[in-house]
Design a protein that fits this description.
By secondary structure, the chain is α/β, with parallel strands linked by helices. It has 2 domains: 11-288, TIM Barrel, CATH 3.20.20.70; 294-425, Nucleotidyltransferase, domain 5, CATH 3.30.420.130. The protein is 31% helix and 18% strand. It has 11 helices and 15 strands. It has helices at 11-17, 70-83, 102-115, 130-139, 154-160, 173-193, 213-222, 249-260, 366-371, 386-394, 406-425, and strands spanning 32-35, 44-46, 87-92, 120-125, 144-148, 161-166, 169-171, 197-204, 227-232, 277-278, 308-312, 329-335, 340-347, 378-381, 398-401. The strands form 3 sheets. It has a 7-stranded mixed beta sheet with strand order 9-8-5-4-3-1-10. Strands 13-12-11-14-15 form a 5-stranded mixed beta sheet, sandwiched between helices. Strand 14 (378-381), helix 10 and strand 15 form a beta-alpha-beta unit. Bound molecules: FE(8)-S(7) cluster (CLF) and iron/sulfur cluster.
Length: 426
């Protein structure tokens, strides 16, 4: 896939596409993209996905070192744009699904458009909510959307998706896969008809969907998609597919060659993190974590005599490196926003039964840990499940998901609380 030919594309979309490092192979050495991790939730569970691991050295979809509010996302964009001149694309690729948290995704795009109307926006989604939000995507002026479509066969889909949650109801098996597929196809058709360049990502899972992928490619070609991107399965630790074999590049390229006869193939995908920044393949996300961006004006003012009491989950007390559900103790820090002191260690029962069971909303004993947090303003943790987050939110406890030292994490959390209070007061 070289420089993109015009076809029926408008001059504006053609220009944008030629500067999009994923849509144009020629652009990927010249232009950088940044992902803003503002959408933590997901409405389906793919058996290859595990968003509960977070490591600065791990690079794959679903991994991020921080989850940002739309306002922090704008601040981060301004910072990165100052430093990376050839930044052409802002993408929202989770760490969950961009549409499962649509109000956050939309607000982020609006915030950035207000400071830079020319940047190219890009979304990545499983497609479940496309029928609901495709018209808003079009209205926002987004021209590049990626939908992951792994199969057209609900029987195969039942092996790939553990469940789908839609309009408050949970579906499993063939019914779940069928519902997802119907919404994906309807959404793709709508987007294409409205001038959006749709890219289809397909995860090649040996023995599950590999022989069926050419049929998927033919179908999406019929719908008018722009390019397909067949990606190898990454058997993520803690996912249901962790023991499946890794697809080799030889097998992957052979399949791409077959599919190339139907539609152009993306061959330079890097299976990026949800907070990736920079040229594809040269990730600079660790340089641009918002915790490194605390400026004097952002540091809480001590004259307010505000005292922050923050519970931290940490394996050895130095790094924020533990999932909330895995903690057996909480480190309780107190401080004024600049300096913090460890006041207490509270023992709690670990409630998380397993890596794929955290987001279920079922009663799994987390109530006890929530009780231990009654007197805290915030929790500073590497990652936390959606339902625990929701319960803490109801108690007015702020959640800071973060991956670095406890010291910088505490200051970062105080800054975020301060910023939140400031905005709420407006
Ligand atoms: Fe991001 Fe995806 Fe947009 Fe690119 S990534 S939302 S289309 S700006 Fe690109 Fe990364 Fe591959 Fe995605 S290399 S994982 S295809
Ligand atoms: Fe993970 Fe994305 Fe699948 Fe959601 S759609 S479970 S975030 S891979």
């Amino acid at each position: 896939m070289g420089c993109v030919c015009s076809g029926t594309m408008s001059a504006d979309v053609l220009e944008k596409t030629n500067q999009h490092p994923c849509y144009s192979a020629d652009a990927h050495h010249k232009y950088a993209r940044m992902h803003l991790p503002v959408a933590p939730r997901c409405n389906i569970q793919c058996n290859y996905c595990n968003r509960k691991f977070d490591c600065v050295n791990e690079s794959r979809p679903g991994v991020t070192s921080e989850v940002l509010t739309p306002d922090f996302a704008r601040d981060k964009f301004i910072w990165v744009k100052e430093e990376i001149e050839n930044l052409s694309v802002v993408g929202i690729a989770g760490p969950g699904d961009a549409l499962a948290d649509w109000p956050l995704t939309k607000k982020t795009i609006e915030n950035i458009k207000a400071v830079n109307p020319d940047i190219i926006f890009c979304l990545s989604t499983n497609g479940l909510l496309l029928p609901q939000y495709a018209h808003e995507i079009v209205a926002l002026g987004i021209k590049h959307v990626t939908v992951t479509v792994n199969t057209l066969d609900p029987v195969i889909g039942a092996k790939i998706y553990k469940f789908v949650t839609y309009q408050g109801k949970r579906y499993e098996g063939v019914q779940a896969a069928e519902l997802l597929l119907v919404n994906q196809l309807a959404g793709i058709e709508y987007l294409v008809k409205h001038g959006i360049l749709v890219k289809i990502n397909i995860v090649m899972i040996k023995g599950i969907n590999d022989s069926h992928i050419p049929a998927v490619v033919k179908k999406v070609k019929e719908l008018g998609v722009f390019v397909t991107n067949i990606m190898p399965l990454i058997p993520a630790s803690g996912s249901a597919f962790e023991h499946l074999p890794q697809t080799s590049m030889k097998e992957l390229n052979a399949l791409r060659d077959v599919c190339q006869l139907d539609i152009q193939q993306m061959r330079h995908c890097q299976q990026c993190r949800a907070d990736a920044i920079g040229l594809l393949g040269q990730d600079r996300s660790q340089e641009f974590r918002m915790c490194n961006r605390i400026t004097e004006s952002m540091v809480p003012k001590t004259e307010t005599s505000k005292v922050y009491q923050i519970a931290v989950t940490s394996k050895h007390g130095k790094l924020v490196d533990q999932h909330f559900g895995h903690a057996t103790q909480l480190l309780i820090y107190q401080g004024d926003g600049k300096e913090f002191e460890l006041r207490e260690t509270r023992t709690v029962n670990q409630y998380c039964a397993g890596m794929t069971e955290c987001d279920t909303g079922e009663d799994c004993g987390r109530d006890k840990i929530l009780e231990a947090l009654q007197d805290c303003n915030a929790v500073l943790t590497m990652r936390i499940g959606y339902h625990a987050k929701e319960q803490l939110g109801k108690k007015g406890i702020y959640i800071s998901e973060y991956c670095d030292t406890v010291e910088t994490g505490l200051r970062y959390t105080a800054t975020q609380i301060e910023e939140l209070s400031r905005r709420q007061a407006l």
